Amino acid sequence: MRPRDLRAVFDRRRTPGMFARFAAQHPDVVEIRMPGQKLWLVSNAAWAREVMVDNGRSVTKGVGMRLLRIALGEGILTTDDAALHKRNRRLINPAFSMSALKTYAEIMVAAAERAEGRWRAGRVVEITDEMQRIALDIVGRTLLGDETDQDAKAVTDALEVILKRFGLGFLPNPEKLIDTRFPPAVKMRRSIEVMKATVERVVTEHTDRPDARQDAVGALIAATEDGETLSAQQVRDETLTLLLAGFETTANALAWTWWHLDQNPASAERLRAELRDVLGDQAPTFDDIARLPYTTAVVAETMRLRPPAWIMEREVREPIEFGGYRAEAGTTILMSPWVIHRDARYWGADVEQYRPDRWINADGEFDPTATGAPRGAYFPFGAGSRICIGENFAWNEAILVLATLARRWAPVTEPHQEIGIWAAVTLRPHPDIKMRLQPAVSTAASPVAG
């Protein structure tokens, strides 16, 4: 491996491209030289899986989680404590049971229908903002039992401030920096206080009225295993973690999906044909998800080319070996879905093309093996014991919201826009994509222009 100097690491518009260039020069692994840190970028899919799965007990979350740990506490996303992670994950699982997911599905569709009630043909919107409003509605009702969005909005507004300053987590001693008068630190500190106070109040209200709300916070409070339960602080920390995961990632995935569909009209028409054939004039349900293979493929292909979690990081706690290399304790290993999802070794010569049908097998079913990519080449939600606990929630939300809206709408990208990326915790469009809301003319029913 040849050392590389990672310049402009804080330029969030360029970092994924730099990683892609490093991987093009060193397709399997390369050391990236930064002061005081030993970073390896692993772009071999099998080796990345070895790090996350086979060596899962010997690695932990890296430096990039320090700022989120300050903001979110010791949730399953941020904690370095393997025993705590394993225990809390077991206790959280009931919040994502099959019965819970069915209930959430109804909330997801209703949120999309409320958004549709606001949409008017010919109106120009910022599509990420529109998808965030839907996601806010969903997480508010599914996680907090918030019928007005007020609590969820307070938390997500605070999260927005924190995510914009994510780079502070890479500076020396971010824990001390947060307590200084440095203006970005002051804004972040205030946002953390608002966020935690709001969720603590919600948790207290749920605790005082345990049967009043059927939502994820209630499930976390009620969770028990062998007499163990989550403390009030742990419920707060896990709630904040789920709010981040449920709000930010799905909204970005949906925004990119609308953009890709506008750029690929044949894919958009095939999607709407499936929705017409399966749903007719009816709204989708949880049971319909399995009957919408191409809709699922559209979401999968979007997350291949525009993975919301575009970079994953593991810090080596004790020496590990993979692919003939030995990583010593203290090494930080980076694995980028942005890079590996675009590697022609795994995805073929058309790797840069948006082609949802690569996920459809000969029987017309959604089938990840139909892509021909090896195991480990697709990991938008991570892998191993640290894989996102809300993966099924996110898949269902993206599919159901898309299915609800795409039956009658075909947003068109406004001309003369240069759409780039903004790579912080998640991968956002930059600037936000302006799209004109247009009826999908090929569908049986069209919305009324306002």
Written as H for each helix and E for each strand, in order along the chain, the element string is: EHEEHEHHHEHHHHHHHHEEEEHHHEEEE
Helicity level: 40-55%
What count of structural domains? 1
Low-confidence stretches: 1-8, 443-450
* Count of individual helical segments: 16
Strand order of the largest sheet: 1-2-3-9-6-4
The number of E-state strands comes to 13
Q: How much is the radius of gyration in Å? A: 22 Å
Taken as a percent bin, the fraction of beta residues is 5-15%
CATH architecture: Orthogonal Bundle
The CATH topology name reads: Cytochrome p450
Q: Which CATH class is shown? A: Mainly Alpha
Entry keywords:
16 helices, disordered N terminus, 13 strands, 450 residues, single chain, disordered C terminus, alpha+beta, 10% strand, Cytochrome p450, 6-stranded mixed β-sheet, 3-stranded antiparallel β-sheet, globular
Structure notes:
The chain has 450 residues and is α+β, with helices and mostly antiparallel strands. The chain has one domain: Cytochrome p450, CATH 1.10.630.10. It contains 16 helices and 13 strands. The chain has helices at residues 15-25, 45-54, 65-72, 82-92, 98-118, 127-143, 150-164, 174-177, 183-208, 216-222, 232-263, 265-279, 293-305, 337-340, 344-347, 391-406, and strands at residues 4-5, 29-34, 37-42, 59-60, 124-126, 312-316, 320-322, 325-327, 332-335, 412-413, 420-423, 427-430, 434-436. Strands 1-2-3-9-6-4 form a six-stranded mixed beta sheet. It has a three-stranded antiparallel beta sheet with strand order 5-13-10. The protein has a two-stranded antiparallel ribbon with strand order 7-8. Helix 7 crosses helix 11 (232-263) and helix 11 packs across helix 13 (293-305). It is globular and about 55 Å long. Mean pLDDT is 88; it is low at 1-8 and 443-450.
